Amino acid sequence: MLKRAGEDACRAVAAGATAPAPHISLLLAGGDGTRLRDLTREVAGRPIPKQYCRLLRGSSLLEATLARARRFSTRANIRVVVNRDHLELAREQLRDLPEDSIFIQPHNLDTGPGLLFSLLQIERATPDAVVAAFPTDHYVEDDGAFIRHVRRAAAAIARMPDRIAILGAAPDRPETGYGYILPAGAAGMGDGIFNVEAFTEKPDLPAAGALIARGGLWNTFVMVFRLSRMMDLLARFAPEGFGPMLALRDAPEKAADIYASIRAWNFSTHFLARIPRHLLMVEVTGVGWSDWGTRESIERTYRTLNLVPFWNQARAVSHQAAG
User: Fold this and answer.
1) Cβ atoms within 10 A of the Cβ of 32, count?
2) C-alpha span between 261 and 88 (Å, rounded)
3) Cβ proximity of 289 and 146 under 8 Å
4) How far apart are CA 97 and CA 91, in angstroms?
5) ∠302-305-310 over CA atoms, to 5°?
6) Closest C-alpha to 152, from 224, 218, 64
7) What is residue 189's three-state secondary structure?
8) Nearest-CA neighbor of 299 among 312, 289, 286?
9) pLDDT tens digits for 204-231?
10) End-to-end CA distance of the chain
C-alpha cells in the first residue's frame, strides 16, 4: 500500500511538472481612436474610441474581440487593458468578466506602456503564462479560422519557447498605414511559419509594394509568447521603456505617478523592429482580416460584404428628407 501511494505521489509530481502553461488572452483596448472620432460621433452620438463603437452587426470591435478570445482562453483567463477615462464604456461591454480581469491604466501612452502595464499585472498572478495579445480595433470575418492560426502560433512557441510568434496577414494591396513583416525563410515547423528578416512600420507606397513583392505580410499585432521570455527581451532591447515601469512590480498603486513621468512609445517601432531574429511569423490567410484604423478601411470591408454602411444610409435618407 505504501509503495503504491509513493508511486501515485511521484506520478502526481511528474504530472504537475509537465502541466501546460495557462493560456492568457490579453485584449488591448487602450487606444483613443482619434482618427475616427467624426465617424463614431455619427454612429454613437459622441466621439468615443472606435473599439467601443458598434460599427457592424450591432457589436463593437471590443465585444467581437472578446468573443474571439474566448475561443482561445477560458473566461477566467481573459484580461483587458483600458484607460481610466474610458472605464464607463468598457465596464458595460465587459460586464461578463470579473472586475480584476480589467486592467485600468491612468491614460493612453501608446502600445508600449499599455502592453508592459498589462504584462506586469499578469506576471504577478501567472508568471508562467503563455500570452496571446489581441488588438481590439481589428475586424475578422472568420473567427474560427483566425483562432486556429493563433493556436498554430502557440504550438510553435511550445517548440521554440525563446521566440515571439506574430501573425502576419497576406496583403491584397500596398497599404501605407500598416506594418510589414518580411520573412527570412521557413522556420522548419510546417507551412506558413517563418523566421523573420525585418519588421517595417508604415512604409511609403513604393516601399510597401517592394515588401509585398518579397513576401512581406501585414502585421496584425496579434502575438503569442511566453510571458517570462517577453519580459527578458523587453529588458534587453527596450530598457528605456521597460526600466521606469518596473516599480509597478512591487507597487502597482504608483501607476499614476509613473505614467506622469514617462513618455509614450510604440511597441512595434521601438521594440519589435529591434528583434527580428527573435520573432516567428505565422502566415494568416482566408480569415477576412482588416485593421479598422480609418473610415476608408471600414467601408472597404462593408463593400466586401456587399453591405452599405448604415451611417451612409442614414445620411442619404436625411438628404432626401431635406430635399
Assistant:
1) 18
2) 26
3) yes
4) 9
5) 40
6) 224
7) coil
8) 312
9) 999 999 999 999 999 999 999 999 999 9
10) 91
Give tens-digit pLDDT for 52-109.
999 988 899 999 999 999 999 999 999 999 999 999 999 999 999 999 999 999 999 9
| Residues 33 and 40 sit within 8 Å (Cβ to Cβ) | yes
Separation CA 43–CA 127 (nearest Å): 41
DSSP 76: G
The set of cell numbers assigned to 174 is 500596398
Residues facing residue 291 across a β-bridge? 138
Amino acid at 57: R
| 301 contacts 292 by C-beta, under 8 angstroms | yes
Whole-prediction pTM value? 0.90
Which domains, ranges and CATH numbers included, belong to the chain? 21-169+217-278+285-322 (3.90.550.10)
Q: How far apart are CA 242 and CA 308, in angstroms?
A: 45
CA-closest candidate to residue 241, choices 201, 268, 220: 268
Q: Are 290 and 301 in contact (CB under 8 A)?
A: yes
Q: Are 137 and 292 in contact (CB under 8 A)?
A: yes
Length of the chain: 323
Residues 6 or more apart in contact with residue 188 via CB below 8 angstroms:
none
CA 302 to chain CA mean position, Å? 23
- pLDDT at residue number 75: 94
Name the H helices within the chain.
2-17, 37-44, 61-69, 87-93, 111-125, 143-159, 205-213, 227-237, 239-242, 255-261, 267-270, 295-304, 310-322
The β-bridge partners of 167 are 282
Nine-digit cell string for 90: 468598457
3-state secondary structure of 171: coil
Q: Which three cell numbers stand for residue 303?
A: 463593400
Q: Position 55: which residue type?
A: L
